[in-house]
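Why should sequence recovery work at all? Because a backbone constrains its sequence more than one might expect. Tight turns favour small or flexible residues, buried strands favour hydrophobic ones, and helices have their own preferences. The token representation captures these environments compactly. In the example below, the structure is given first.
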């Protein structure tokens, strides 16, 4: 693979990892601002939709269900929009990144980070 293609692929991988990190940070911020009652309500609603018994769910599954509900309600930009805005002013977005993107990008490329 030519060096410019490899660099372009790496850039795309890093940007997609940063986008996933940004979205995760946004969802986490909203999640942490919710009351216990609201989280419980979200889990119950999502469990009904997925035909699951809420009484038999572990912690991780409950968090996953609440996150699914949040993903549908929190306005997040699509990747193309985010990328355009990020490339225009990365400093506006860097403060929201949790650092997960480093792990995500190295997992995709298979390189040690």
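From this structural description, the recovered sequence reads:
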């Amino acid at each position: 693979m030519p060096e410019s293609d490899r660099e372009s692929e790496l850039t795309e991988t890093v940007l997609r990892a940063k986008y996933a990190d940004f979205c995760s940070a946004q969802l986490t911020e909203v999640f942490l601002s919710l009351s216990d009652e609201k989280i419980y309500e979200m889990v119950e609603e999502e469990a009904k939709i997925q035909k699951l018994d809420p009484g038999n769910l572990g912690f991780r599954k409950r968090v996953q269900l609440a996150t699914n509900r949040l993903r549908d309600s929190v306005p997040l930009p699509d990747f193309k929009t985010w990328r355009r805005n990020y490339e225009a002013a990365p400093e506006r977005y860097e403060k929201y990144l949790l650092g997960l993107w480093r792990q995500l990008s190295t997992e995709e490329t298979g390189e040690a980070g």
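A few observations help interpret the result. Residues 82 and 88 are 10 Å apart (CA to CA).
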